[in-house]
Amino acid sequence: MKKVIFVILWAIVGSSVQISFAQSSILYNFNSTETFEKIADRFRQKANDSLALYFYHQSLASATREGDSVRMVHLLSNIGAIYLHLENYTTAMKYQQDAMQRASYTHDTVAVATIYMRQSAIQQAQGHCSDALITANKALMFKKKQMRAEDVAELYFEMYKVYACLSDFKQAYDFQARYVRLNDSLQRAISHHEAARLHFNYELDKKEAAIASIQHQRDGEVFRRNAFIGALVAFLAIGGLLYNRQKIIFDKKLMLKRQRLDNYTQSLVEKSEMIRQVNEELATLRNSLSTEDIHIRKFNEVLNLQILTEDDWESFKIAFEGVHPGFFAKLRYHYPGITVSELRLAALIKLKLSLKESAAMLGISPESVKKSRYRLKKKLEVPDSENVDEFIIRLTA
């Protein structure tokens, strides 16, 4: 009886559009959470906010019973978006905050970016343009990493409205131009996809006609069956070979990245250690001379300006992130106040370098490294029962 009711509801929702065979199949299998969400999506497209809210809440209740945290995040955010459309900003922000809290547990960075973007829209609608800009910039941090092109375009449009709200017309124009370029590119991609789909359907029709012409032949069924089995076996064999080849290539690339990082780290350690030894030898030589040699003094001053250059660190970061992608982003996400020097120390801890090796790379004494590690542990709020090394490795695993 329950399935019959939802078949009727689905028919009502899709009365103005074609219902595909795939949709009917999904409905027949009846996943209540997914079915409720699809019905809500359809009502939302029709701007029927009250029914969309009703079915989103039904889907949320079902997802809560199933413990589906990922779907709960998206449902909460969608409900908040409808309340924004209804200009109920307090309730809209409450649902977005609930969605953000759950997203932080699921580590769904795409959802986090979308929620930030919707929170910015709420703040802008309330006239809090400065707060809206801060929130939109948080969403902007994710734009080149995980967000889809469609979401990036929507974010650019939101940034354009925020800057317009702040009367910063130069920035507003810049983001409007970005939105237009990206949106045009997406429209072209959709057109190409549609052309490819039509061509595919045309080719499919031709093949179906060819098959129909030989259906009356005596061995037609046997031929098609054998052809299908042969094609399937070939596809599986080729797929297996391609998978193994890609896996081997990936493993080799990862191994090379690890070797490059290890070699570069060792090179930096040796370079810093060599400079430190030269400094000590120059100091000893200078102390042994009755008069200071001006060339030795100048050379020593140059060496002491900066043991590691910014270019060295930039190269190191590129090699490091090749092996540990997202390391710095995770730390900044969980601890927005972390400094550049603390990020460097955290990276050396991740590499399991000793105090002496870390000191050589940073150009400071082992004692200073020890103090920096202690301060970093306090900032990260690491329990006394756990050392900072284990905490960083676990946090960024």
TrEMBL record:
Top-rank taxon: Bacteria
Coiled coil: 261-288
Short name of one Pfam family: TPR_12
Residue stretches spanning the membrane: 227-244
Key words, A-Z: Coiled coil, Membrane, Transmembrane, Transmembrane helix
Protein name, entry field: Transcriptional regulator
